[in-house]
Give the backbone structure.
Amino acid sequence: FSSNSLNFDFPEAIKNKLFSSKLKDKAKYEYDYCLKNSIKLISFNSTEYPINLSHIPSPPPLLYCKGNILPKDECAISIVGSRKFTEYGRAATKKLSTELTSSGVTIISGMALGIDTFAHTYALLAGGRTIAVLGSGINIVYPDQNKKLYTEIIENGAVISEFPINTPAFQQNFPIRNRIVAGLSLGTLVIEAKKKSGTMITAGLCGEYGR
């Protein structure tokens, strides 16, 4: 496959960028890194691509994945909320995550501190499956305090990201990440959140997606 075989009427500048040696080197580095570190590359046309996510208006064309996404993960609910939680928020997350997990529902969240962490943790303690969506590259554990949780999620579900390897957890990544949290699930439970927050962005996206 070469730039000469492109049938699309792209401007020459875009063709040159698409087939630049720099871009090819970066793609090779990412591919080799994923092979060495047991990271799956799941493209939009793959049979492993999550069916719920494929139905949103702007699904990511490629997912980096550690762990396994199973067909039964189609029955999923997102649980999201504030990093600055209350004891009521913790108790509500424990009750809902545990009961949903016990009913065979996969729990989706963003592995942030607070409610997200509790959602994953209680799903695991109940012996269920959970999927974490990162706002960084798949190899960047954020927050750092969740390294152990990151490993446990991989063993009992999956950690996924659409961001390239080594992408830091930039603030602007999280609203982008939130559309995946919303898109993977049949619905979202908001435990606690400020009116202006990433959690409410996720809730708004759920409304747009009819979830």
Notes: The helical segments are 12-18, 21-36, 51-54, 87-102, 115-125, 147-155, 173-184, 198-209. Confidence is low (pLDDT under 50) at residues 1-6. The radius of gyration is 18 Å.
